[in-house]
Design goal:
By secondary structure, this protein is α+β, with helices and mostly antiparallel strands. The chain contains three helices and two strands. A two-stranded antiparallel sheet has the order 1-2.
Length: 118
């Protein structure tokens, strides 16, 4: 059943990852990630990331990126009956993107290097 002006409450989310040719040839697993998050307003936040298989820890990085993205954008989801113009929310959306980017880059940098005592 559909709520007035909104989507069905029983949406199903499907996703698929596919191991690419190079990964098959080299015997390495697919390193892409996908994640969704349902919000209290009945919306969905979907995120996907390419694992960049040539990079170390690429699968871990892709999984971190989709977690950060779904967490950052979930608070911005509004009820379907009050969908705003995306241009009007540009600053909020840009801020969420920057939050994800900065957190991901901090994660990539790892913990600060400890200096050795002399």
């Amino acid at each position: 059943m559909t709520a007035a002006g909104g989507p069905p409450g029983d949406w199903r989310v499907h996703g698929i990852r596919s191991t690419g040719y190079r990964h098959l040839r080299e015997g390495t697993p697919c390193q892409d990630a996908l994640r969704y998050r349902r919000t209290s307003s009945g919306g969905l936040v979907l995120a996907v990331a390419d694992g960049a298989g040539s990079a170390p820890r690429s699968r871990e990085g892709a999984e971190k990126a989709v977690r950060l993205a779904t967490d950052a954008f979930a608070p911005l989801v509004t009820p379907w009956r009050r969908l705003p113009d995306a241009r009007a929310r540009k600053e909020e959306l840009t801020g969420a993107f920057r939050k994800v980017r900065d957190a991901f880059l901090d994660w990539c940098a790892g913990p600060p290097a400890r200096t050795r005592p002399r």
